[in-house]
Write a structure and sequence with these properties.
With about 575 residues, this protein is an alpha/beta fold. The protein is about 25% helix and about 25% strand. InterPro entries: GH, GH39_cat, Glyco_hydro_39, Glycosyl_Hydrolase_39.
């Protein structure tokens, strides 16, 4: 183990000219007419399902009844196969989860300093994930209490009802005092998982060291982190030779840390199967302590442009290392705003996490990531939503989550339902009023303007799916006029098609709107709950219809409010 103990990090880098959050512009122009063209014969290769991953801090909520139901919900509409990434697996604790904290409580030492392990909590968490048909993105962190180094005593905190000890306050971020004992923990964890879930399953997992070591999650130096990476991946591979290992899972300010890490791994030929980093679209001034129904001090929004700029900058930095150009980029926190456990009562700008704005933002972002993949050397394989659910919150608290109180599904979950209905092959789709990722070359830090854009796919049976949306990176923008969209699908195979039209907007697939119409009850009756949950799933905009293709051509007209997303599934009949 390195004897260097300074907590200084390499310089953090602000990427691009972006503000912490995008201001609202009430005078931004609207799009009144759009033409979308889809060519069913223009295949663009397999549709990379970059969205099939989510994660969260509170590992102990994985195996609650609500957590298990949510994991199964994802499996039910997607067929399973998501990568799920919980924090805090090696942290010591009671297994009682609270927002932004959890504990797997695996590592212990006896009176003579000999390690022993308890996988009781980990088994419950991983059993719930694997049992629902998903795979674990194993975050190997953080330092157990019995492995704290002497310098951890330097971190002092003021005792309070919400901070038990300095351990929960952050000493878990110090490097382990004994890298050999850490290696033993990693081997024991890997071996236990191999024996419990089998070789085929654990080979589908991703094994990643730590989280965001460029900030206070890591209280050591970059050199110590790099050394710990060597120790960690060797320990994993000693047990699971084909395990997919990687890192360094830095924040968007950690570009220099990432480069230092890649300098280290490339010069030593260290095992590296994927490279991970994070991006966030905004950071609001939080906890304004204003009256609950007041407006925010300033109307602010997430910027998808900023997120895409981050992704491109990181992927281009990775591409400078020729041996790493073919490795997948795992953006295992890819979110519109931070932190996950803040909501509308902390700052009203978090309201978008309740509304139809967020699912439309999310489908737009996933499509633009695919556009970046088409133009860049390094490819994003997964873009993880750091979202799950929160115990004890009020109805529509506004946290970054898929469920609100009472297990009610928020509109965000319907974005993933829509994406799951896309086919296996991407086909060409263009819009005459779409924002193009090439505009990142000339960005001045402005967020994405209003657009109509589309993502289209084809299935083996000839079914064509077209996901089209209207969106602007401004949750406060509204429009009295819907945008007319002329959709043309060319070169389809077959003459007669059954058309199903799914919609997310203020009036469809939206439990939040229904809750508000009922008076925003915080103690809803059974009848009210039934009415809210009846509108929580993905809804059809209109009854299914039959259309005839003329010379392989289909023409459809739809109109979109702001914001909205429509998914049209065109299935050949006969």
């Amino acid at each position: 183990m390195s004897t260097e103990t300074s907590t200084a990090h390499v310089g953090r880098v602000s990427l691009g000219p972006f503000p912490p959050a995008a201001p609202s512009d009430p005078d931004a122009p609207h799009v009144s007419l759009a033409r979308v063209d889809v060519d069913a014969s223009a295949g663009q290769g397999p549709l990379t399902r970059v969205w099939e991953s989510f994660g969260y801090d509170e590992i102990n909520w994985t195996y609650t009844p609500t957590g298990k139901r949510l994991l199964r919900t994802f499996a039910d509409f997607s067929g399973g196969g998501y990568h799920v990434r919980p924090h805090y697996v090696f942290c010591s604790g009671s297994g009682f989860g609270i927002p932004h904290w959890g504990s797997g409580n695996v590592y212990h030492e006896d009176a003579d300093g000999h390690p022993y392990y308890d996988f009781t909590i980990v088994d419950q968490a991983y059993d719930a994930i694997v049992g629902a048909g998903h795979h674990v993105l194993v975050e190997l962190g953080f330092t157990p209490r019995d492995l704290l180094p002497p310098e951890a005593a330097e971190l002092t905190v003021t005792p309070s009802p919400t901070v038990y000890t300095s351990y929960e306050a952050g000493t878990w971020g110090y490097p382990p005092r004994d890298y050999d004992k850490w290696a033993g923990l990693i081997e024991a964890h890997a071996r236990h998982c191999l024996e419990r879930y089998g070789e085929a399953e654990v080979n589908a997992w991703l094994w990643e060291l730590w989280n965001e070591p460029d900030i206070s999650y890591w209280r050591g130096t970059p050199a110590q982190f790099n050394e710990l990476y060597t120790v960690t991946v060797r320990a994993v591979r000693n047990v699971i030779p084909n395990a997919k290992v990687g890192g360094p899972t830095v924040t968007s300010g950690g570009l220099n840390f990432l480069k230092g890490f890649l300098d280290y791994t490339s010069s030593r030929n260290e095992p590296l199967d994927f490279i991970s980093y994070h991006t966030k679209g905004s950071r609001f001034p939080t906890r304004e302590y204003r009256p609950l129904d007041s407006l925010p001090t300033e109307r602010l929004n997430p910027s998808s442009t900023k997120m895409l700029y981050d992704l491109r900058a990181f992927n281009r930095a990775i591409a400078e290392y020729e041996q790493y150009r073919d490795l997948p980029a795992i953006v295992d926190e890819c979110d519109a705003a931070v932190p996950a456990h803040f909501g509308r009562y902390d700052n009203r700008n978090y309201e978008f996490q309740n509304t139809e704005y967020y699912p439309v933002f999310q489908v737009k972002l996933m499509k633009k990531i695919l556009d970046l993949n088409a133009s860049e050397l390094v490819q994003v394989k997964r873009a993880t939503s750091w979202s799950f659910y929160f115990e004890g919150e009020r109805y529509f608290e506004g946290t970054r989550s898929f469920l609100t109180a009472g297990g009610i599904e928020k509109p965000l979950l319907n974005a993933y339902r829509m994406l799951s209905l896309l086919g296996t092959e991407r086909i060409r789709a263009t819009s005459d009023v779409a924002w193009d990722v090439a505009e990142l070359d000339e960005t001045d830090g402005s967020s994405m303007p209003e657009e109509i854009d589309a993502l289209a796919s084809r299935a083996d049976n000839g079914t064509v799916a077209v996901l089209v949306w209207r969106h602007i990176d401004d949750q406060y923008q509204t429009s009295e006029q819907e945008t007319a969209v002329s959709l043309t699908v060319r070169n389809v195979a077959g003459g007669t098609f059954r058309v199903r039209h799914f919609r997310i907007d203020a009036d469809h697939s939206n439990s939040h709107t229904r809750w508000k119409l009922l008076g925003s009850p915080q103690d809803p009756t059974g009848e009210q709950l039934a009415e809210i949950t009846a509108r929580q799933g993905l809804e059809e905009f209109e009854p299914a219809s039959t259309v005839e293709a003329e010379s392989g051509l289909l023409s459809l007209d739809i109109s979109l409010p702001l914001p909205a997303a429509s998914l049209l599934i065109l299935e050949p009949i006969g």
